[in-house]
Design brief:
Elements: H1 9-12, H2 24-27, H3 33-41, E1 48-49, H4 61-73, H5 87-101, E2 111-114, H6 116-128, E3 134-139, H7 143-151, E4 155-160, H8 171-177, E5 182-187, H9 200-213, E6 216-220, E7 246-251, E8 264-268, H10 270-283, H11 289-300, H12 304-325, E9 331-332, E10 341-342, E11 345-346, H13 352-363, E12 365-366, E13 368-369, E14 381-384, H14 389-406
Parallel strand pairs: 1-12, 3-4, 3-5, 5-6, 6-7
Antiparallel strand pairs: 2-8, 7-8, 9-11, 10-14, 13-14
Helix pairs in contact: 4-11, 5-11, 6-7, 6-10, 12-14
The structure holds pyridoxal-5'-phosphate.
Length: 411
């Protein structure tokens, strides 16, 4: 089974990391390389970032207007929200889930509002996994899924996506990864960083395995609206038969250009929600009240904006692919079927952490080293194409210029 060693770009760059008096649990994880690279980039004010997965759009105007209205007229907006979220927002979420995925959720019992999908996934894993349990991740995977698993002293078990077949999922490899210790699988489709979109057949086969071997299915699908070409989105949350073993984590961050509002939600069976609320109470008390009004406006407002974002990201994917084609001696890549990342392989043999740090220092371009995304990510970097055309073009102009000197020097 592939294993994975956690590395830290901050430590490699000389940042202090104390170990005396620090728990082994915390020492075993690192800050996600995505944020580490952003942090390192603060020392290079002219750097152009393709690192963080943040849409460059402003939060849509109708959402900002609603927030202004609440600030001016709602005396409760500065107070805690109810533990599970504003009832009116949960009603809107239930309607949204029904129209978007055909899910029938009881808004009072089967939903709660979180500080983004990040809190939701961390809480899902903390709720179901004990020390020594195993959590299956499809790798390369979202680095925080590794951290969330390790923070509860469970072990990530990686099922490698096959790069030679376009980062394809292999149900046989998945079944080989199941053991008596398997507690859950985390499904992230379209995937970050590969863009892999799981087919309905694959998702249904995973659900059958979950029933047979009695483990949880955790879904984290913030890019469900970003599916391109022939790919079709299908989620385990659309299989009612596995509702009792399902925790679905949702995010408004990408779909509504709301990464900074920190809003997401969880859909699960009532008894699971009530257990998860213990964590929400201990860590958050409630998601920010003002952000919940922003979320309400996003869900109730015109959904055409989501289509506009999708079309734009598709166009930007093709722009970034065209720019990568001009660097064919430096990178090879697979055109992603979803999400907004490219995960090219660095062709010259090199350590991708050293490569990313050098690219930042010498070319002023921020990318994320692929090793942070688990086995299979080594020798790759992640590039985000949610940025504007200008940002993408300027970053690639710099990389092209730098590549001339890079190819003449050794790391
Ligand atoms: C796969 C995945 N899950 C979760 C998140 C975090 O979502 P949120 O902003 O809702 O916490 C991200 C953000 O990049 C992501 O890519």
């Amino acid at each position: 089974m592939p294993t994975h060693e956690t590395r830290s770009a901050l430590e490699m760059s000389g940042f202090a990391m104390r170990s005396k008096g620090i728990s082994k649990r915390i020492q075993s994880v690192s800050i996600s390389a995505i944020k580490e690279m952003m942090h390192l980039a603060l020392s290079y004010p002219d750097a152009i970032s393709l690192a963080q997965g943040t849409p460059d759009f402003a939060t849509p105007e109708h959402i900002r207007d609603r927030v202004k209205h609440e600030l001016d007229h709602n005396p409760n907006v500065g107070k805690y929200a109810p533990l599970a979220g504003l009832p009116v927002l949960k009603e809107a979420i239930a309607e949204h889930l029904l129209s978007k995925r055909g899910i029938i959720a009881n808004p009072q019992k089967e939903l709660y509002v979180t500080m983004g999908a990040m809190e939701a996934i961390a809480s899902a894993i903390m709720t179901i996994a004990d020390s020594g349990d195993e959590v299956i991740l499809l790798s390369p995977c979202f680095p925080s899924h590794i951290t969330h698993t390790m923070l509860v002293e469970a072990s990530p078990v990686y099922v490698r996506l096959d790069e030679t077949r376009g980062w394809a999922f292999d149900i046989n490899a998945f079944e080989r990864a199941i053991s008596p210790k398997t507690k859950a699988v985390v499904l992230c489709s379209p995937g970050n960083p590969t863009g892999t979109v799981l087919s309905e057949n694959d998702v249904r086969a995973i659900a059958v395995s979950a029933e047979e071997h009695d483990f949880w299915v955790i879904t984290d699908e913030p890019y469900d609206f970003l599916v391109y070409d022939d790919a079709r989105f299908f989620s385990a949350s659309q299989i009612p038969e596995i509702k009792n073993r399902l925790i679905s984590c949702f995010s408004l961050s990408k779909e509504y250009a709301m990464t900074g509002w920190r809003i997401g939600y969880v859909y699960a069976e009532e008894g699971v929600i009530n257990q998860m609320l213990k964590i929400h109470d201990a860590f958050a008390v409630s998601a920010a009240t003002i952000s919940q009004y922003a979320a309400l406006s996003a869900l109730q407002g015109d959904q055409l904006i989501v289509e506009f974002f999708r079309d734009e990201f598709l166009r930007r994917r093709d722009l970034m692919c065209a720019r990568l084609d001009r660097l064919s001696e430096l990178f090879s890549y697979i055109k992603p079927g979803g999400a907004y990342y490219l995960f090219p392989k660095i062709i010259p043999e090199t350590d991708e952490y050293a490569f990313a740090i050098r690219l930042l220092k010498e070319a002023g371009v921020v990318v994320v080293p692929g090793g942070a995304f688990g086995p299979g990510g080594e020798g790759h970097v992640r590039l985000c194409f949610a940025m504007s055309d200008d940002t993408i073009n300027q970053a690639f102009d710099r990389i092209e210029k730098w590549n001339t000197s890079f190819s003449k020097t050794k790391l």
